[in-house]
């Protein structure tokens, strides 16, 4: 059973108007609410409320100003994610290259290169062993063409670092790096 009754887009706009929100272009607002949820927008108008219990808005609160905030945040996220992706790929590449050149393509399986601290939740397994299990799980779950080819051509054979590390999550990579 739902906690609240769902509102149509038309009802959402009516509710916002009742609470004091203004609209310069209501048909455009209807379009945006069809594509960006009311609840997502709520985070962008939260501080524009005069009353946080009744959810009424401060004077001159326009939907279009909320949309501008959302758009700014969206663009900022795109810029940041682009930068993070570049850093992640560079880190992944350097890790693969330098460790493969120094220790061979299966360096990640060389337990001597890593700390073997017991896992706090299970002292019978080390953090390294747990991380390798995560890495292999990610490898077997991957649907990347080059991984499927590796599994088909070399069944039951460990993949070289330059393959397996490309499908490792950033979390798994950071654990190996640590």
Structure commentary:
The protein is mostly helical and 178 residues long. Helix content is 59%, strand content 7%. It has eight helices and four strands, in the order αααββαββαααα. It has a two-stranded antiparallel sheet with strand order 1-2. It is elongated and about 65 Å long. The chain starts with 8 loop residues before the first helix and ends with a helix.
The Cα radius of gyration reads: 25 Å
Biggest β-sheet: strands ordered side by side in the sheet: 1-2
Distance between the termini: 46 Å
State the shape: elongated
Beta-strand portion reads 5-15%
Helix- and strand-based class?
A: mainly alpha
Mean pLDDT: 93
Uncertain parts: none
Overall helicity: 55-70%
Main sheet?
2 strands, antiparallel
- How many strands appear in the DSSP assignment? 4
> How many alpha or pi helices?
8
The string of secondary-structure elements, in order, is HHHEEHEEHHHH
């Amino acid at each position: 059973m739902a906690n609240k009754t769902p509102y149509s887009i038309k009802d959402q706009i009516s509710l916002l108007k009742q609470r004091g929100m203004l609209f310069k272009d209501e048909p455009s607002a209807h379009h945006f609410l069809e594509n960006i949820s009311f609840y997502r927008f709520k985070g962008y108008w939260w501080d524009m409320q005069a009353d946080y219990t009744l959810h009424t808005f401060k004077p001159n609160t326009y939907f279009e100003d909320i949309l501008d905030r959302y758009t700014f945040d969206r663009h900022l996220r795109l810029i940041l994610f682009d930068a993070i992706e570049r850093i992640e790929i560079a880190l992944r590449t350097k890790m693969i290259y330098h460790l493969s050149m120094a220790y061979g393509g299966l360096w990640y399986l060389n337990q001597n290169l890593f700390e073997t601290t017991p896992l706090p939740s299970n002292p019978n397994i080390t953090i390294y062993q747990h991380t390798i299990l995560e890495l292999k799980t990610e490898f077997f779950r991957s649907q990347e063409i080059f991984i499927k080819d590796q599994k088909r051509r070399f069944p039951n054979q460990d993949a070289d670092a330059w393959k397996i590390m490309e499908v490792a999550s950033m979390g798994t990579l950071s654990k190996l790096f640590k």
